[in-house]
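Q: Sequence in, structure out?
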Amino acid sequence: MEEVTKRPRRKRSSPVKAVPVAVAEPREAGRDIGRWAVVLVLIVAALVATRFWDLGNRSYGHDESIHAWEAWKLVTGQGYTHDPIYHGPFGYHVVAFFFLLFGVGEVQARYAPALFSVALVLLVWPMRKWLGKAGAVLAMALLTISPTLMLRGRYFRHDIWLLVAFMVITICIFRYLQDRKDHWLYLMAGSLAVAFASKAISFITGFIFGTFLVGYLLVEWFRTRRSLKELPALDLVILLGTLVLPQSAPLLLKLAKLDPLDYSGPALVRTTVIVVLLIVISAVIGTWNKRRAWLISAGIYYLLFILLYSTLLTNPRGVATGMVGMLGYWLSQQGVARGGQPWYYFYFLNVVYEYLPLLLAGLGAAYYFWRSRKNQPGKEAAPAEAAPEAERPLPFVPFLIYWVAGNFFIWTLAGEKMPWQNMHLVVPLGLLGGWFLGRIWDNTSWRALKARGGLQAAVLVPVALLAVIALLSAVLGPTRPFAGMTLAQLTVTMRALLSLLVLGICLVLLRRRCAGLGAGGWFRLVLATVVLVLGAITVRDALRASFSNQDYPTEFLMYADSSPDTGLVMADLKMISSRLAGDRELKIAYDNESSWPFVWLLRDYPNTTFFTAESGLSGDPQVVIVGPPNEEKVQAQLKLKYIKRQYRLIWWPNQDVYSGLTPAKIWKDLRDPARRRYWWDILWSRQYPQPTTSWPYVHPFSLYVRKDVAAQLWDFGPEIAGAEVELPEDVYEKKRISLSAVAAFGSSGSGNGQFSDPKGLALDAAGNIYVVDTRNHRVQMFNSAGVFQRAWGSQGTGPGQFQEPWGIAVDRDGYVYVADTWNHRIQKFDATGKFVTTWGAFGDVGGVLGDPLLLYGPRGIVVDSQKNVLVSDTGNKRIVKYTSEGQFVQQWGGSGTLEGQLREPCGLVVDANDGVYVADVWNQRVQEFDRNGAYLAQWPVVGWESEAPVNKPYLAIGSQGSVYVTQPDYHRVVKFNGGGQVLAMWGQYGSNDQGLSTPSGIAVDAAGFIYVADSGNNRVVKYAPVN
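A: Exactly. Output:
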């Protein structure tokens, strides 16, 4: 900055000459280096401490647990397959390597991101040639104390990898522009491979870098009138463009209104042709410019790209998902707009957290353009660092300004906005802000400022600012000064008067003792004061977000993160297991609504089982972790045997705070004392009207501990500990027999003889087996040996088509009747599968005996000796009897719990006298009716507590009137006599010859052999007769 002569300060004696304060005095080199070395050491110490200190203090969230799980699978030999949903493979390989070095654990998974977070800041130092030494150190300081980088740089997310990669790329670009040595191209190519193997948003930063280089190339070409090949910027443009171009195929497909994620035959061929064509174009352009350098660079890029995406050549398909799926999936998410954030989201986030680099970057950009207008473009680098061999200074500062502006523009337009993405905006803000502070530092004579009263001003200015703040809080508060004589009113009045007094004294002293500073000196002192104050507040905000509120949604930098409850639950489970079951031998079941982070956190517990609403909960695990939707389905199973605790799994910040902001609304809030207080409490203290104990934006989960386990633990409350607990007895276990299947057929798939969730089955007089292949929407027929004979049906609503059929029956003439469940009808076929007739249509009769031709999800069907067809009209809570042609005969039931009433009837069967047995599932009983539907008897069934969709049991009649009942939730079959007495029970979860998984349909042949549709295992199993 130019020299400015200040007005001398007046004394009682003769005046003195003004001392220039705007021009830096020559500094002693050794002293200057020593000073900066000390500052640099302090910054690095703070950086390492804030990134590595107490890495285990934050609970694992949904995304981070998935990332750690994939790295764990990789290091334990279970393999990793690239999935664009979970970003690129680089981070998984790095964290897996750290697992190898330090062991597997929650803290160890964070070593790599913490180390890269340190590297991100340290990479500023090689930029000192363009930032200036002071600018580099100050930029490092800004990035070190950044709340966004401190919080998000400590945990396993993929943004940190590509940020480090693009810092290296930045260095490579400007070093190459300076000396045009090929090794910078090679390092740039490797860094690009890392970036594009990390996260799809690399395309955003790559686009910003690429367009800047194109613009710079054109400016230099017009300015110098030299051949393009003589300009080093061309090499960079071609390298960046040709390496990224093939991966841009999804963008071309999207612009052509085609789906880049369509991997069907013709679409896959089309996409492959486009990618190959882009590779050829890239190779032609690259070898035209610098053949050898480009080939080496491309070799480095594709070697790393292929090794990472193919998981070291073990997953060739990963190359395709990386080349096309990565960007394709990210583009598809922009329409989803996950998070639903307003367009100004990142502006709000940076005002709340990154106000210091945001302010300094804005001042820096203004300062640069102001200096440019004075035709002094060569001052963007510190004088000591200028490159004398360069004809024209490198455009590092314009590059930073463009990077900042490009980031805000693109992320404003982006559909998906998340707080961790703010890391990409903070880095260039910090670099530009650091450069500006460095310029001010290098061009200021602090000794001269001190001589002209700068030290006194440095003390008085902050005091004056505090007085102004106190005065404004009094004037703008809900109680105004001089408003009355109450104690509160007098307190406000005194605060206003004292503030005015302090402010007046400060102004008088500043006028008398610091008048010689001049505009330049005042600017520097005010700027220094603001930087120090805002820097201290930034440190406070960063430490609070990273170490106090790191698990709480009171911070806007959080989104869909775990609450501290998951850590508390894991501590409880570890304690229970070590005290009662041995080291991690506890039997734990968890569901799909609470799977993450528990899949990762329970990886070393061998006795864990996973269940869904479809599969249901089986057995009596010692601990059950379940989310709300599934809890409703299994609560009946749990409420008698377990005690419950409610916890918070994932929570979100209160987006209502900043949603719908407009200038008018902001102005209105500023004029409203209550709203000003609301904003102050949130922005300064992170205090909300609602406490976190009753936070509304939360996904909860429940922990169920079996009562006999809890009774042995004082920790679960004095009312539990030591109590005599007798669990409800499972009477069926006393009748358990060891029974292995004598045969089984079927497997998962859609081919002949394969199944997808088979439900009902039936036998004809010749022993042929008919199976409804539910999710394949068809019927399959097998001979008595289980050999496939024929299949018919497909998904649809036409004659002979099905929509998840469940029930099937065969009459003595060989006609086949199918309960076409979600077409809400019955279909009749001959023995060859030829369509004969159909009846029924969708209708909800409200649980009463209404129109018999309106059906609601019929699941059970059987034919009696008179060839009448009896149907379980499940959704309408009734049994309807028709003739074999579909004419109505009679109905009975209706919704209720009384004798003869039904709730969710499913399987039904007739005995030799045409008596009817019905699985009255939600009433947890079997009811017996005579052939005319008159109620006869009932018996309870233990194991039908769940209301899960999969818990739809079926019945079969055996010898001497015995009744076989499937229990899908418990993966077993129970045999009763005709009076409801338990005769035998077998089955357990598994897929071996003694295992079952959600068994459904059941039938018994004339010889007593038992056939069961083992739905979860996609097979039919055959058992020998059970006596």
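The chain is about 45% helix and 15% strand.
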